[in-house]
Specification:
alpha/beta, elongated, Aldehyde Oxidoreductase, domain 3, TIM Barrel, six-stranded parallel beta sheet
Length: 344
């Protein structure tokens, strides 16, 4: 698909009849169809008035501190352009107003992609930052991103990859995990237990059918008291059982520190010290802290990461044909940041 060159291209573009999904595909993003329309107008004016060879240096900075993510994807977007790019390595902390990416080249070459680059960095960094906050609470205990169901499927893999950059051990979304070069994490939902009709029967089926590398982590809050079900499952699977997953719904009080303490004590008393406790279900930082202190060993975190506010990113032109410039309120010229590296 040819990239947009003029406002006439925008006017003549038609969305195909019968389109099944509303998310932009890769070709549409590369063509500039997700950009703000004024960048297309700007390209047309500059190219028709003799400014097409104007070289600029553009810098991107955030409005608040966080963890950078989305650099690799933004670089992939700019891959075929004749531009030079410097950026912070993914996973690097930054402060408000730090330069996180610098692009040097013809403005008519890359200006149309400002909207997409900023959006990629803003959302990815917001998700990575939320995951980093979880990591500060869980410390050496692992957590996994379970947030795919809370966002549009087109961006779920982006979100879960960003969470892994921020500190998550893994993610449930298949494509998100694969993009981060790890295998997806997860066992089975309540649906299996409801259909089978008994937690132990379903646990035995899982153990029988799933390959050995699939963790034997069994959900225990579907039918009966969580501690009772945990002991039944532990007796049935024995040494094969790796963990009990608690996901008690809010209607029943949710997963509490008291429940975790009771479960840990009764598993230990019954000789199942090897069985870990995996907590999930609407966890925020304070809940994670309390559950960890009570004895939870690992966590599934969804909405805290998926609902993270994007970190607003701004792109400023700081040089034109080698001369320092800036709009009012900003300092002209390149802003130093020794943490950045050349990536293109």
């Amino acid at each position: 698909m040819k990239s947009l060159q003029s406002i006439q291209d925008v006017t003549s573009y038609r969305v195909e009849d019968g389109r099944r999904l509303y998310s932009a595909n890769h070709d549409e993003i590369l063509a500039g169809l997700t950009t703000d329309v004024y960048f297309v107008k700007t390209r047309q004016i500059l190219e028709t008035q003799g400014y097409q060879n104007t070289e600029v240096v553009a810098e991107i900075f955030p409005r608040r501190s966080g963890i950078i993510a989305g650099v690799e994807e933004a670089l992939n977007l700019l891959r075929d352009l004749d531009v030079q790019v410097e950026a912070l390595p993914e996973g690097t902390p930054f402060s408000a107003k730090d330069v996180v990416m610098r692009i040097r080249g013809l403005y008519t070459e890359f200006g149309i992609y400002e909207t997409a680059v900023l959006g990629i960095l803003a959302h990815s960094s917001g998700w990575a930052t939320a995951a980093h906050e979880v990591k500060q609470v869980t410390k050496d205990k692992p957590f996994f991103c379970f947030g795919a169901r809370h966002v549009h499927p087109a961006v779920a893999p982006v979100m879960e990859r960003a969470a892994i950059i921020g500190g998550a051990r893994g993610a449930s979304c298949i494509l998100g995990a694969k993009l981060a070069r790890v295998e997806p994490s997860g066992t089975v939902p309540h649906a299996l237990f409801l259909i089978v009709g008994d937690t132990v029967d379903a646990a035995r089926m899982y153990d029988q059918i799933m390959p050995s590398e699939s963790p034997r982590t069994i959900l225990v809050d579907t039918f009966k008291d969580e501690v009772e079900e945990s002991l039944r499952v532990a007796e049935a699977l024995g040494a094969q059982l790796e963990a009990i997953r608690l996901d008690t719904p809010g209607e029943r009080g949710g997963v509490t520190a008291a429940l975790v303490r009771e479960l840990r004590a009764k598993l230990d008393l019954a000789g199942y010290q090897h069985v870990q406790i995996f907590a999930s279900g609407g966890l925020d930082l304070e809940k994670i802290r309390l559950l960890s202190q009570a004895g939870a060993d690992a966590f599934g975190v969804g909405s805290y990461i998926s609902s993270a506010v994007p970190i607003d990113m701004t792109m400023d032109i700081k040089e034109i044909n080698g001369m320092p410039v800036a709009k009012r309120g900003r300092l002209p010229g390149v802003t130093p940041n020794d943490a950045m590296v050349k990536v293109k």
